[in-house]
Amino acid sequence: MRTRRLRLTSLALSAACLLTACLAGCSNGSGSGDDTDVSLRMTVWSNDASQTALFDSIAAAYRKTHPDIRSITFDYLPIDNYTTALTTQIAGSNPPDMAWVLERDAPDFVSSGALTDLTPTLRKTPGYQYDDLTPAATKLWKQDGDLYAYPFSTSPFGMFYNKDLLKKAGVTSTPDQLVAAHQWTWQNAEKTAAQVVAHTDKQGLVVRDWDYKTWIELASLWRGWGADAWSADGRTCGFDTPQMRQAMTFLHDAIFTDKALPGPGETADFFAGESALTVTQISRATLLADHPFDWGIVPLPSGPAGASQVIGQAGIGVMAKGAHKQQAADFLAYFSDPANSAKLARYFPPARTSQLTTAALAKANPLFTAQQLQDVVIDGIKDGAVLPSHEDSAKIANLVQNALDPMWKAGANVDSVLAGVCKAIKPALSE
Amino acid sequence: MSDTPVTGARAGTAEPRAGSGPRAGSGRRRTLRRQDTLSGWLFVLPQTLGFLAFVLYPLIAVVYYSFHHSNVLSGVTTYAGTKNYTQLIHDPATPAVARATVLFCLGLVVINICLALLLAVLLNQRLRGTTLFRTLFFSPVVVSLVAWTITWNFLLQNNGGINSLLHVVGVHGPNWLRGDDSALVSVVVVQVFKNVGLNMVLFLAALQGVPRSLLEAAEIDGAGAWRRFRSVVLPMISPTTLLTTIVTVSGSLQVFAQIQILTGGGPDNHTNVLVYFFYQQAFDNHDFGYGSAVAVVLFAIILVLTAIQWRLRRKWVFHES
């Protein structure tokens, strides 16, 4: 009796095992393969509850008129390893139907054929107003005139400042006053930050998300000197140019001589009141919704080369390996139509010319004044340039990070380190 | 009488039942044997399927990919011959990765084994409070690796807990995770504290198995404490030393989460060990072919090191038989 029971148990276990293996093997990650019962999935790097609620509400409205769509889910992946997680899903034959793509990965995703051409679907969607999309916003996501991702967020960088902390440190000219006096320069920003460090127990200036690793965030600084990581065609290294050397020497002195920025291994969160100034995208303003302190925002300071604004961008693409490409493209057309674009503008500055007005943005962004929206958002998008990107961005990012590491210590030879960066990335740039 | 079917072994020795001839008995035995064989296969089937799907298939796939260029985004895979291996030899990062791997492995194995043995010897004494200390030293083993590493990450920051403590006694601590050498030392120490308890327990068990008669005989012969430890205890626990060394060496070559959380392979590749380098190439840079070649080399290194240790055991491991 016991043997028979054991046999039955082992048979049941084996059957369960086979069934699990079959289910795992047969699953396409997108739910049913039946086009009348479709589950769509989009990967995102935001887990902000209010943003997720907005996405869900748009998806719910779409499903009311599209009974063939059983569900639309927004799959959160942390930004730190977002692209790695996304490409792992693609490699593992479990791609999402739609994905947010960072601007730095755009050339790689577009040129490799990972995304589908959205132009036919967006053009034929009634009321979409395809020609309303600004050429500057779509440039990065186009190939041979076709659009491979919708630039749902074109977010300028700005400098947030903590008025309370500046007052406590005895700062007499606040950033908005310096802007008005045409003295809003990196030198003055650095002096302000150093004064806060000297007179309070808080930090001065934080380049958010950089943390001595994500060097691409430093573009907000070095472009004030007219420097860039590489040439426009991506073939020539820009780290050893005189402009870059001056910018990086300024940064190095600000960190290790004036202590205006937190040193390596030191953390300070502006939005928790731990620093006086921070360079980051305006979409982070949601973190100040509860008004933890009196704050303001101004455009990025000027450098020797003048004012140079920087834009971070994210696109939504339909994955070429997705199981329901047309349904995903149709949903994306709805998600980014004029009405929904206006709703999304609350968090993500739109790519539509008609919506880039102070009045339109003010409706969606109650945290900002009209002047801030004009100076930082509208002018920033109009005059700004997108962060550096490259077809081999991930590999180059690692190489630059390793080569820049020796700079982040007192007494480092900036020129020599920057020459080393170019030596490290030149083979990858010329591939 | 129970109706439980007899096993094959019992069937072979059982008397034929009344009314059944030799041919019928032999047929039943064959049927029973077939059923037993089927049962055996069914029992091992889940494990076998798991092994095929999650061990053997990935192993073969990694070797296959190591001879190909694979673009994850486009899904195109092309034959590359030995180019990925050649690339590894000529990669400018290879010397730094090799250095970090060797130093990390050596540091971890030496410190871990020595400290585990020392702790085991101390806690093997009949002193008060040893149970508490055994628990304290073993508890990190059962703590989540990621939680443990994140906690240490906070402690090792420039303005973190360790430097704050040092500041109290007037010492200006280094920037642990950013210094070229201190970063590697920090990762080794974090890993040692995490796992030393496991080796300590193994050594403790081995020490308690050393016959007291041998120690007493050595003492009567005039051997001091160090001589007894060197000539009696160490040989007697050498099988455990072999086991812990093999496990620690192979474990040190597979350390990943600590590097990922604490240093990300930096600064300037000083903590970029081979397994992390593999991850960077395959998953960060989307170069599965090159990453697979690194993984195959890592597999070969572990295999060779384990084989060497297994061969050397004849020279230093004591077996009573």
UniProtKB/TrEMBL annotation, chain A:
- Which residue positions does the secretion signal occupy? 1-24
Gene Ontology biological-process entries? transmembrane transport
Matching InterPro entries: Bact_solute-bd_prot1 (IPR050490), SBP (IPR006059), SBP_1_CS (IPR006061)
Which PROSITE patterns does this chain map to?
A: PROKAR_LIPOPROTEIN (PS51257), SBP_BACTERIAL_1 (PS01037)
Q: Which UniProt keywords apply?
A: Signal, Transport
Q: Per its UniProt record, what PANTHER family does this chain match? A: ARABINOSE-BINDING PROTEIN-RELATED, DIACETYLCHITOBIOSE BINDING PROTEIN DASA
Q: Which family does it belong to?
A: Belongs to the bacterial solute-binding protein 1 family.
Q: What is this protein called?
A: Putative sugar ABC transporter substrate-binding protein
- Organism of provenance: Actinacidiphila reveromycinica
